[in-house]
Amino acid sequence: MLTVSKVAQILGGTVDGDLSAPISRISSVAQATEECAAIVLSKKDEKKLSKTNASVIIGPEAIRLAPSKTKIILNKLDVDKLNDLLRYYRVHKYQLFDQENTSLKADVYIGKFCSIGENCHLGPGVKIMNGVTIGNNVAINANTVIKEGTVIGNNVTIDSNNSIGNFSFEYMAGKSSRYERVESVGRVVIEDYAELGCNNTIDRGTLGDTIIGAGTKIDNQVQIGHDCQLGRSCLIVSQVGLAGHTIFGNGVIAQGQVGTAGNLSIGDNSIIKAKSGVSRSFPANSDLFGYPAKDSKSYFKNLAVLNSLTKERSSKVDKEHAVNKSLFQRLFNK
């Protein structure tokens, strides 16, 4: 088990608090519970410090104001040292050094330390890695891969060829590379009665969890980025792409080929019409369309004005052409 002292040693930090305090889980500032150590990755995280429940906070001098009992203060967050910590944590958390197929079905792989409920169906080619938790009455169809630490609730249906729990697409500037990937230690959590179609990819959170809310339905060929949170009863249509840290409230509908820029939120019961590109947050009950997406009524009103101007311009050009043609005919008696 990790301790504050061990983490401080790996990261090169100074401890303000209990050196011997145990750390059972690493998490994000926003999602941390009392047993967690939360890591500050950005200025955005610093703004959430006053509300965090983490017992241990890791970050710059600003964390001294956090209510947490113990702080590990860093002069600079070194991505190489951070990855050393996160890699050590992930390997030991899910005991990735101890892997073996525990399945009784020849065409299904189930890793060790998993919990699978009653009345579950696992299709041929399904792979479930270490430390996965699956509830009752879950159907996972052919060739789907569920990666370590994923949590799946009751009465969930997952169709073929999904990849769930992939590495997050989170990068920091490193010593040897402009883009150094940050190790992902968060999870994917799929709540009760959710449904996933075919060929979807869902990335795990970098530090926190990527969450698919209860009763949410996801079509085929959808990409859900790291640390996204979809509320209850959302509807996500084919070829939607959600960048990291996109948050949907309850009952949000994203129609086909919608894209989000990430680090934004969409309020409850909003609709995003097909092919829209969302670049900022919107409140509840929004009706969005276009690129960049805006209120649908405003978009169509602007479009009507533009069409009107185009028609006026076209009419003016036609009149000028008629005048020039008449002049030509008079000059040359044609």
TrEMBL record:
Domain of life from the UniProt record: Bacteria
Enzyme class, broadest EC rank: transferase
Enzyme Commission code: 2.3.1.191
Entry's Gene Ontology molecular function annotations: UDP-3-O-[(3R)-3-hydroxyacyl]-glucosamine N-acyltransferase activity
Family annotation (Gene3D superfamilies): Hexapeptide repeat proteins, MurE/MurF, N-terminal domain
CDD domains: LbH_LpxD
Keyword Lipid metabolism among record annotations: yes
Keyword Lipid biosynthesis annotated: yes
Keywords: Acyltransferase, Lipid A biosynthesis, Lipid biosynthesis, Lipid metabolism, Transferase
Entry-linked InterPro entries: Hexapep (IPR001451), LpxD (IPR007691), Trimer_LpxA-like_sf (IPR011004)
NCBIfam families: PRK00892.1
Protein name, as recorded: UDP-3-O-(3-hydroxymyristoyl)glucosamine N-acyltransferase
Lineage, highest ranks first: Bacteria, Pseudomonadati, Pseudomonadota, Gammaproteobacteria, Vibrionales
